Amino acid sequence: MKRIVLRSKDIYRGNLILINQKHPIQIKEEEIIKDLTPIGNCLSEHFINKNTAKALQYILNKINSEDRIIPVSGFRSRREQIDLYKSSVRDNGLEFTQQFVAKPDESEHQSGMAIDLGENKRDIDFICPDFPYNGVFNKFREEAKKCGFIERYKEGKESITGISKEPWHFRYVGYPHSVIIEEKGFALEEYHDFIKNYTSIEHSFKYKDENNLIQLFFVKSTEDVQTFYIEDDSKYEVSGNNQDGFIITLFKNCS
Questions:
Q1: What residues act catalytically?
Q2: Residues 121, 134: Cα–Cα separation, whole Å
Q3: How many angstroms separate the CA atoms of 232 and 249, rounded?
Q4: HSE-up (13 A, CA, CB side) for residue 223
Q5: pLDDT tens digit sequence for 118-142
Q6: What is the pLDDT of residue 97?
């Protein structure tokens, strides 16, 4: 059997951390910056974390869209988020800003796992770039969910997310979470609540794709160090939820 160790300090790390008004980001900025890479090429002014960048580049290459879709905003430091919020209040008013700009430490952009994308055209709005629901943009959405991305802020979820509909904002959460979230029509907040219904390997949520039986479950953090065991032939991923525990993903090849 394979031994998995969970440390309480790590509930604030991982692809699935929930960042919003109730759950501000807890990871130190220096730690996040160490894992950043430029989007596309070394001359890019936009940075995101390495896993997010790799998945994004794969999608853009697959749909041959790099001339139509461009990054508008990736990682932001806390200082940049403060400045953006203040400047938006000044230029657009408080009501608009509260709808479309998160307060410092409540922004997914500070995690390095969020990217705002826009249609490549002459005038691009930095806060609300155009990203239509047609053509190559919908091709991106279809591939994105297969590669770990969700469209984070959807219409009808404003009361849950605290943010208005943002067709341009994509968040990396990893596979198969992205597919499940999109298929069930969840906001990320709802997915976290959903997974908490499954609390052990024996009582896990099961998802099957072409090659794997995937088991998902939640482990509440109750001690500084916790352990559990999985079968030797299982691959696994662990992510904190930025709240009170861990989401475990087990992959067992069944092809």
A1: 166
A2: 16
A3: 14
A4: 6
A5: 999 999 999 999 999 999 999 999 9
A6: 96
The share of the chain scoring above pLDDT 70, in percent, equals 98
Handedness of CA 138, 139, 140, 142 (dihedral sign): positive
Tokens, residue 41: 């090429």
Task: Tell me what percent of the chain is helix, strand and coil, each rounded to the nearest 5.
Answer: 30, 25, 40
- 173-230 tens-digit pLDDT: 999 999 999 999 999 999 999 999 999 999 999 999 999 999 999 999 999 999 989 9
Give the residue ranges of DSSP H helices in the chain. Answer: 29-33, 50-62, 78-92, 94-100, 135-146, 158-161, 177-184, 188-195
DSSP track, 203-230: T-EEEE-SSEEEEEEEEE--SSEEEEEE
Q: How many CB atoms lie within 10 A of CB 78?
A: 13
Q: What is the pTM of this model?
A: 0.96
Tokens of 36: 């950043």
Residue 141 per-residue DSSP state: H
Backbone angles phi, psi at 113, to 5 degrees: -110, 10
Q: Which domains can be identified in the chain, with CATH numbers?
A: 1-16+187-254 (3.30.200.180), 21-172 (3.30.1380.10)
